[in-house]
Write a structure and sequence with these properties.
Elements: E1 2-8, E2 17-23, E3 30-39, H1 42-48, E4 65-72, E5 84-87, E6 90-92, H2 98-101, E7 115-116, E8 135-139, E9 144-145, H3 152-155, H4 161-171, E10 179-183, H5 187-199, E11 202-207, H6 213-219, E12 223-226, H7 230-235, E13 240-245, H8 253-257, E14 260-268, H9 281-284, E15 289-292, H10 298-310, E16 317-320, H11 325-333, E17 340-344
Parallel strand pairs: 10-11, 10-13, 11-12, 13-14, 14-15, 16-17
Antiparallel strand pairs: 1-2, 3-4, 3-8, 3-17, 4-5, 5-9, 6-7
């Protein structure tokens, strides 16, 4: 066991404070990572505040992690000291179920399912701690390589926000000839716009207001419409092949279903804390689908990083010190960030 500094919440809704945590010793197939940057995801806030149910405390959040390998175990073949690497939302899975064998570790159906990067219990029976820390030890099979074409600070949010949007856009065929709407222009939404545009789709942003319109068009959207304007839903009726919702608020889902073409899909990656309601007539009248997507597998995450490096895609970030985390949480809740807070781990 080794000690490292971290920022943790010690109780639900408590502010995060600097503390010391224990990391396991480097095993045969582990890599020890010096964390350089960690993104702040809205899901960090949900979990610290128990918005998604009972959580494990003390909690060290963070699953958008970019760093450099300091040490590799004797059996490690994929990485060596000095490699630029990332860790996302999971650090283990059963490895033997059909989904794991298919590269869909995020949907692991084995005993216990996948092991989350934080707010979970590892196979050793110890709680997992995330990226708001100086170091972490991770099995090499759940680590990805960050291409040289990506700066570590703008790459960190790709480990959650990037793969969370890339995976459904690829799965539902966003590309040339397809019309894609992105609901929300935040941490996930701005990357969805960039990725959908790079895939070749015609992109429309659907946001509450036109406040970020200039940014959306700059990032690759061809159209930007305000959902607060009733004419938006009237004029865009039956327009889209895919509507990707990145927001964590409960929407009027029937209204958004009206925006789909026949056989279109409303895909959700945002997770509201409250239940949703849906009029099934809005689904069956056009053979439409309501779907969800959860991050991506390890191989697909690497594919996403390589794609982003090849297309010059990184997150738009505001770099902060660790002692600004609590303020950043409040600003995320107020939608006061363009577009992702990233912690400089050197300040932890």
């Amino acid at each position: 066991m080794t000690s490292t500094t971290a920022y943790a919440a010690h109780a639900p809704k408590a502010p995060l404070e600097r503390t010391t945590i224990e990391r396991r010793a480097v095993g045969e197939f582990d890599v020890l990572i010096d964390i350089k940057y960690a993104g702040i995801c809205h899901s960090d806030i949900h979990q610290v505040r128990e918005g998604w149910g009972e959580a494990i405390f003390p909690m060290v959040p963070g699953h958008e992690i970019a760093g450099v390998v300091r040490e590799a175990g004797a059996g490690v073949t994929k990485f060596r000291a000095g490699d630029r690497v990332g860790v996302g939302c999971m650090v283990d899975s059963c490895r033997t179920c059909a989904n794991c064998e298919a590269g869909l570790e995020q949907y692991c159906t084995g005993s216990g399912g996948k092991v989350e990067t934080y707010n979970d219990t590892g196979k050793d029976g110890r709680p997992t701690y995330g990226g708001y820390s100086r170091t972490m030890v991770v099995d090499e099979n759940y680590v990805v390589r960050i291409p040289d074409g990506l700066s570590l600070d703008v790459a960190a949010p790709l480990l959650c926000a990037g793969i969370t949007t890339y995976s459904p856009l690829r799965h539902w065929g966003a590309g040339p000839g397809k019309k894609v709407a992105i609901v929300g222009m935040g941490g996930l939404g701005h990357l969805a716009v960039k990725i959908a545009d790079a895939l070749g789709a015609e992109v429309t942003v659907l946001s509450q207001s036109l406040r970020k319109r200039e940014d959306g068009l700059r990032m690759g959207a061809e159209h930007y419409r305000a959902t607060s304007d009733p004419k938006t839903f009237e004029e865009l009726d039956g327009t889209f092949d895919v509507v990707l919702s990145t927001v964590s608020a409960a929407l009027d889902y029937s209204a958004y279903m009206s925006l789909l073409k026949t056989d279109g899909a409303l895909v959700n990656v945002g997770l509201p804390e409250e239940p949703i309601a849906l009029d099934l007539f809005s689904v069956v009248t056009g053979r439409k689908s309501v779907a969800g997507s959860n991050i991506g597998g390890i191989a697909e995450t690497q594919e996403m990083l390589d794609f982003c490096a090849g297309h010059g895609i990184g997150a738009e970030i505001e770099l902060i010190r660790a002692d600004e985390i609590n303020e950043a949480y409040e600003r995320v809740l107020d939608s006061d960030v363009r577009y992702r807070f990233v912690i400089d781990a050197a300040t932890i």
